[in-house]
Amino acid sequence: MTDLTRANESWLTSPTHQQWLRDQGQALVDFAKAARVPCGFAALDPFGRRPNNAPADTITTARMVHSFALAHIQGLPGCAPLIDHGLAALAGPLRDAVHGGWFARPAAEDGNTRKDAYLHAFVALAASSAAVAGRGGSAELLGDTVAILEGHFWSEAEGALLESFAGDWSDCEAYRGANSNMHGVEAFLALADVLDEDLWLDRALSIAEKLVHQHAAQSGYLPVEHFDSQWQPLPDYNRDNPADGFRPFGKTPGHAFEWARLLLHLEAARKQRGLAAPEWLLEDARRLFASACQFGWNVDGDCGIVYTVDWNHQPLVRERLHWTLAEASAAAAALLQRSGEHEYEVWYQQFWDYIDLYMIDRQNGSWHHELGIDNLPSQNIWPGKPDLYHAYQATLLPRLPLAISLASALKLRR
User: Fold this and answer.
1) Please, which residues have CB within 8 angstroms of residue 5's CB and are 6 or more apart in sequence?
2) Which of 3, 42, 80, 278 would you label with 367, given CA atoms 20 to 30 Å apart?
3) Phi/psi class of residue 373: alpha, beta or left (left: φ > 0; alpha: ψ in -120 to 50)?
């Protein structure tokens, strides 16, 4: 930290702001507790209610386990039974008992039997955080997840994660995704901490070098999202479905923010463990953040971050998604913490001002997950309020060091 933060000129060292983040985080956790269903956790509607017969899904369940583990470690009551409920679901109905790995829904009741790297990265994150929280069954889940990642998804030859397989692990998808690999980096950072293994930081660095230092650096420092099996970009991918929630056409400024933060976590983690930390980790984080601000923030006549831009960096899908603001604020905090430079303080405050004025739903609770181009609530891409993970982490990251996992950092601060 520079004199800027030591002198309490930063919100990162303001007791009032720190308390505001704590209060906001607890409100988010309390809202999300209603998501429990028999087979895990399900998406909530805009009012915080479970629709009739709302199905559990594995991504929501894994994210809830991770988030409730963080809350439990902090000392928020009522979260331990929810962690255990989610772990039981991940060990039971959401798991493929025949071939291993996890379905998107219990017993693949939706007919989708494919196994996705994105989903498995979140199961690994959930298992890691639950293990730090000391919950029964977490060690077994962690071991199973690591075995699946190493046995099927990690490609040593490619230095990255493969995308998806059929239920029996045949039919490797001829597609490589930046989104799944980005969350793979997040999961690997947690695994390196919980398992005390440098290997995961080497794998995280390999992914980051490929997707950021090579491809994003050649594309204006907005990450290229879609690739073929030879890691050649697919610029026309999903052109006919530009607003896809996971694989949108074009570029996604929110992912540039998210990558920027992860690069700084990776740099700090590698330094803490005495490993080489290339200088480009910091430089690329700066450039990703700058490009996301330039091409994503206030670019279409109103405030906010657009969901996607086209290959000429012009606004494309103009809805404002809550997770992009959560990641923008967290990236600004990380760069401020790493550099102490005032420009990141300005961005950090600006992003939280927007979240406070537009995203926080003070009538029904939690955050609006999507706003239209008029900054009023919409549901074109993400209906309801299924996601605790992004917003909750945004209230935690500014209060924690860059190195070690969120769960371990919170445990040390108790």
Assistant:
1) 12, 13, 336, 337, 340
2) 80
3) alpha
- Structural domains in the chain, CATH included, are 7-404 (1.50.10.10)
Residue 45 sits at the vertex; the CA angle it makes with 44 and 47, to the nearest 5 degrees, is 110
Backbone phi, psi, residue 280, to 5°: -65, -20
Place of tokens 């080489």: 276
What is the pTM assigned to this prediction? Answer: 0.97
From the list 120, 215, 322, 390, the catalytic residue is 390
Q: Catalytic one among 152, 255, 368, 369?
A: 255
Q: Which tokens hold the place of 56?
A: 């559990």
pLDDT value at 188 more than 60: yes
Phi-psi label, residue 125: left if phi above 0, alpha if psi -120 to 50, beta otherwise? alpha
Mean pLDDT of 323-334: 98
Would you mind telling me the total number of residues written for the chain in this entry? Answer: 414
Amino acid symbol at 286: R
* 3-state SS class at 251: strand
Task: Convert the pLDDT of each residue in 240-289 to its tens digit.
Answer: 999 999 999 999 999 999 999 999 999 999 999 999 999 999 999 999 99
For residue 68, give the nearest of 393, 403, 397, 404 by alpha carbon: 393
DSSP secondary structure code for residue 152 in this structure: I
In the annotation, is 120 catalytic? no
Judged against a pLDDT cut of 70, whether residue 340 lies above it is answered with: yes
Local confidence band at 9 (pLDDT 50, 70, 90 cut-offs): confident
H helices, E strands: number in the chain: 14, 10
Confirm whether 255 is a catalytic residue.
yes
Return d(Cα 152, Cα 136) in angstroms, integer: 26
CA distances from 188 to 124, 166, 193, 327, 376 (A): 8, 23, 9, 18, 37
